[in-house]
Amino acid sequence: MISITPATRDDVVRFYGGLPGHSIRALVALDDDGEVLAVGGIAFSQGYWVAFYDATEAFRADRRALVRALRAFRLLTEDKDLVAEIDDTFDGADVLLRHAGLEHSHEGIYRSCRSCRT
User: Fold this and answer.
1) pLDDT category of residue 118 using cuts at 50, 70 and 90
2) The domain containing residue 70 runs over which residues?
3) DSSP 3-state assignment of 111?
4) How many structural domains compose the chain?
């Protein structure tokens, strides 16, 4: 079974082969052997919280795990205004972004404005 947990420094290094050049808050999907199948979260860049998600095909094929990850992502970001750029190479990216609580803004950009809601 795939588990969704807060990412550790080691998880990020094992998945990407190194650390990003900026601070992130992330979740990981781990299989039973501890292999990192996906990393997703937010990074603060140029005054914006930017949503990101990278996953293996094995993770993308497990819809239940994806739903659990989306729920955890929404909890992680419930108080943040977000921006994300759609990945046109990922079939269904627009649906994933909408389920993550973002709305299409313009030209491949999705946004959420949690602080705008009453």
Assistant:
1) very low
2) 3-116
3) strand
4) 1
List the CATH number of the domain containing 68. Answer: 3.40.630.30
| CA–CA gap between residue 31 and residue 41 (Å, rounded) | 18
pLDDT score, position 117: 56
Which DSSP string corresponds to 32-58? Answer: TT--EEEEEEEEEETTEEEEEEEE-HH
Classify 101 as helix, strand or coil. Answer: coil
Q: Is the dihedral of CA 90, 23, 113, 75 positive or negative?
A: positive
The number of C-alpha atoms within 13 Å of 104 and in the hemisphere containing its C-beta is: 9
The Cα–Cα gap between 9 and 77 comes to 19
Q: Are the beta carbons of 85 and 109 closer than 8 angstroms?
A: yes
Taking the alpha carbons at both ends of the chain, their separation in whole angstroms is 38
User: Three-state SS for 106?
Assistant: strand
Instruction: Determine the pLDDT at residue 22.
Output: 86
